[in-house]
C-alpha cells in the first residue's frame, strides 16, 4: 500500500526503481549510487527498495538483465522489420545499433568499472545469453554458410576486434576522425562480414537457411535473457 492507502503494483514499482537506478548509474556510477539515492530518485521509501531487492548489487544485476532483454527485443524486431532475409552482416549492424542505444549493456561489453564498479566483471562473466555471436558463427561454419579456410578462433578474434574495438576506441578518437553514430553500424558490419563471408554466393536455399539460423539464434538468446530477468525479479519482488 502507498502512504495514502492506494494499492501498489509491485511490478510497476520495481520498474520505477530500476529506471531510477539506471539514471543514477549513468550519472554517478556504481560506487556513488546508494539505495538511499535510488529510493529518492524513484520517489519511494528506502524500505520499499529492500522489499524488492535485498542488496544494491542484486538490484543492479536485475537492471542489467532487464537491459539485456530489452536490447535483444530491439534486435529481434529490427530483423523482423528489415524487409530482407537475415544474415550475419545484418545481425552485426543491428547489434551495433542496439548497443549504441543501450549504454548500460555497452558498459558490460567494455567492462566499464566507472559505471558498473566491481559488477562489471561479474556481469561480463555471467555471459551473453546463448553464447553470443560465437555460437552462431560456429553454426554457420558447420553448415558451410561462411568461409571455413580460417579457424573459428581466428574469425572470433576479427569479429571481437572490430565490434568491441569500436566501443572501446570511439571515446578516444580525435574529432577529425569521428564518424556519425548512424554510419557506424554498417561500417562495423561490412568490415567484419568481409572477413567471414565465403567467396561463392549463397543459393536461395542457403539464404533461407542462414535467415533461419540467425533468427533462431536471437530468439534463443532472448528466451534465456527473459528467463534470467524473471528470476532476478520473481525471486525478489513482493507485493
Automatic annotation (TrEMBL):
<keyword id="KW-0238">DNA-binding</keyword>
<dbReference type="InterPro" id="IPR009057">
    <property type="entry name" value="Homeodomain-like_sf"/>
</dbReference>
<dbReference type="InterPro" id="IPR001647">
    <property type="entry name" value="HTH_TetR"/>
</dbReference>
<dbReference type="Pfam" id="PF00440">
    <property type="entry name" value="TetR_N"/>
</dbReference>
<protein>
    <recommendedName>
        <fullName>HTH tetR-type domain-containing protein</fullName>
    </recommendedName>
</protein>
<keyword id="KW-0804">Transcription</keyword>
<feature type="domain" description="HTH tetR-type">
    <location>
        <begin position="11"/>
        <end position="71"/>
    </location>
</feature>
<feature type="DNA-binding region" description="H-T-H motif">
    <location>
        <begin position="34"/>
        <end position="53"/>
    </location>
</feature>
<dbReference type="InterPro" id="IPR050109">
    <property type="entry name" value="HTH-type_TetR-like_transc_reg"/>
</dbReference>
<keyword id="KW-0805">Transcription regulation</keyword>
Amino acid at each position: 500500500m502507498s502512504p495514502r492507502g492506494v494499492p501498489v503494483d509491485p511490478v510497476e514499482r520495481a520498474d520505477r526503481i530500476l529506471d531510477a537506478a539506471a539514471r543514477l548509474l549513468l550519472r554517478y556510477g556504481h560506487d556513488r549510487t546508494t539505495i538511499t539515492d535510488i529510493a529518492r530518485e524513484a520517489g519511494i521509501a528506502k524500505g520499499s527498495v529492500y522489499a524488492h531487492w535485498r542488496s544494491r548489487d542484486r538490484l543492479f544485476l536485475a537492471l542489467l538483465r532487464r537491459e539485456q532483454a530489452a536490447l535483444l527485443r530491439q534486435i529481434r524486431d529490427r530483423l523482423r522489420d528489415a524487409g530482407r532475409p537475415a544474415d550475419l552482416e545484418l545481425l552485426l549492424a543491428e547489434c551495433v545499433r542496439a548497443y549504441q542505444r543501450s549504454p548500460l549493456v555497452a558498459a558490460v561489453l567494455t567492462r566499464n568499472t566507472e559505471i558498473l564498479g566491481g559488477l562489471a566483471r561479474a556481469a561480463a562473466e555471467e555471459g551473453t545469453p546463448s553464447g553470443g555471436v560465437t555460437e552462431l558463427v560456429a553454426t554457420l561454419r558447420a553448415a558451410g554458410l561462411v568461409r571455413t579456410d580460417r579457424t573459428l578462433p581466428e574469425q572470433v578474434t576479427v569479429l571481437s576486434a572490430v565490434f568491441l574495438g569500436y566501443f572501446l576506441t570511439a571515446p578516444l578518437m580525435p574529432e577529425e576522425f569521428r564518424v556519425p553514430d548512424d554510419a557506424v553500424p554498417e561500417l562495423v558490419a561490412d568490415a567484419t562480414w568481409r572477413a567471414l563471408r565465403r567467396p561463392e554466393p549463397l543459393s536461395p536455399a542457403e539464404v533461407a537457411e542462414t535467415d533461419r539460423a540467425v533468427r533462431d539464434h536471437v530468439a534463443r538468446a532472448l528466451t534465456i535473457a527473459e528467463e534470467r530477468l524473471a528470476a532476478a525479479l520473481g525471486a525478489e519482488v513482493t507485493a
